[in-house]
Design a protein that fits this description.
Low-confidence stretches: 1-12
Structural class: mainly alpha
Radius of gyration: 20 Å
Mean pLDDT: 88
Distance between the termini: 30 Å
Helix content: over 70%
Strand content: under 5%
Order of helices and strands: HHHHHHHHH
Shape: elongated
Number of helices: 9
């Protein structure tokens, strides 16, 4: 573990200084934490896949039922993304659980704030125009995936997040049909899940 005590990094003036060894230690700890996350969660591919399937399911509900049922399907389905992704990761031979010392685990939890904040905005916007629900959710989901680059150390997440956000903006501006944004978001996630799986550690 890295010693963060101030006394160890005191300069001649008595003020704390940033030590090169400390910076290198932090970089190494980040790299090692990212490597563990990639191994135990299969690059995050299982979570992206499950999420994509749930988005497509919500889009299907929007076609065969109504907008409110579709929104509810995405919300309820979203509650099962993590447990289902962990179960799938275990089926693929991964542990689906990071070590308690890995601080990146908290980042995954904190990033949920972006998603739940987006969900609130999406539900409010849908009261005025239901067609805005999925575009707003796409933007929120994309913003969360941008953080996954730090979580896993994979630039693919920057690309996925950017494409999802761009799709959300276009869907709102061009006024795509209600269910269209759901299928586009789900389709992108499924495609990237395959790409992430093919880049899994040990392949």
């Amino acid at each position: 573990m890295i010693d963060f005590s101030v006394d160890k990094y005191q300069g001649l003036s008595g003020r704390p200084v940033i030590c090169t060894s400390m910076i290198r230690g932090l970089e190494m700890e980040l790299v090692e934490s990212q490597a563990e996350m990639r191994v135990v969660y299969v690059n995050g591919a299982t979570g992206v896949l499950v999420s994509g399937l749930i988005w497509c399911l919500a889009g299907s509900v929007g076609i065969y039922s109504n907008a409110h049922s579709s929104m509810l399907a995405l919300f309820l389905g979203g509650l099962f993304i993590f447990p289902l992704s962990v179960a799938l990761a275990k089926l693929l031979g991964a542990t689906g659980k990071h070590s308690a010392q890995n601080k990146l685990g908290t980042l995954a939890i904190e990033s949920l704030g972006v998603l739940f904040g987006g969900l609130f905005v999406a539900f409010v916007a849908a009261q005025y125009n239901p067609d805005l629900f999925f575009p707003v959710m796409l933007v929120a989901l994309g913003a969360r995936y941008l953080m996954f680059q730090t979580l896993y150390g994979l630039t693919l997440y920057w690309l996925l997040g950017g494409l999802l956000m761009a799709s959300g903006f276009l869907a709102a501006i061009l006024q795509w049909p209600f269910f269209a944004a759901a299928f586009i978001g789900g389709g992108l996630e499924i495609l990237f899940a395959v790409a992430l799986y093919l880049r899994r550690p040990g392949l």
